[in-house]
Amino acid sequence: MTTQSEAALEKCLIDKLIEGGYERVKIRDENDLKINLKSQIERFNKIELSDDEFHKILLHLESGTIFDKAKKLRDKYTLKREDDLIYIDFFNTKDWCKNIFQVTNQVTMKKTYENRYDVSILINGLPLVQIELKKRGAELKVAFNQIERYRHHSYRGLFQYIQIFVISNGVNSKYFANNKDLSFKYTFSWKDKDNRNVSSLNEFADTFLERCHLSKMIARYTVLNETSKSLMVLRAYQYYAVEAILDKALNTTTNGYVWHTTGSGKTLTSFKVSQILAEEPGIDKIIFVVDRKDLDYQTFKEFNSFSQGSVDNTENTKNLVKQLLGPDKLIITTIQKLSRAVARHKAIEQVKNQKTILMFDECHRSQFGKMHDVITSFFTNLQYFGFTGTPIFAINSVDGMTTKTLFQDRLHSYVIKDAIRDENVLGFSVEYVGRYRNKATLDIEVEDIDRKELMESEDRMEKIVDYIIAHHDRKTYNREFNAIFAVSSIEVLTKYYEIFQRKVHDLNIAAIFSFDANEEIKSDEHSRDKLERYIQDYNEMFGTNYSTDTFNEYYVDVSKRSKDKQIDILLVVNMFLTGFDSKLLNTLYVDKNLKYHGLLQAYSRTNRVLNEKKKHGNIICFRNLKKATDESIRLYSDESASEFVLMKSYEDYADDFNKVLEFLMDVAPYVGYVDELPSEKEIAEFVKVFRELLRIHTRLSVFTEFTFDDLHISEQNFNDYLSKYLDIYEKYKQSTAPEKVSVLDDVDFEVELVRRDNINVSYILSLIKELDIDSPSFEKDKEFILDTMERSHELRSKIDLIQQFIERTIPQIEDKDKIEYHFENYIDKEKKKAVNNLAEEEKLDQDITKAIIAEYEFSGKIRNDAVKQSFEEKLGLKERRSKLQRIKDLIVELVDKFSW
Question: pTM for the complete prediction?
Answer without folding.
Answer: 0.77
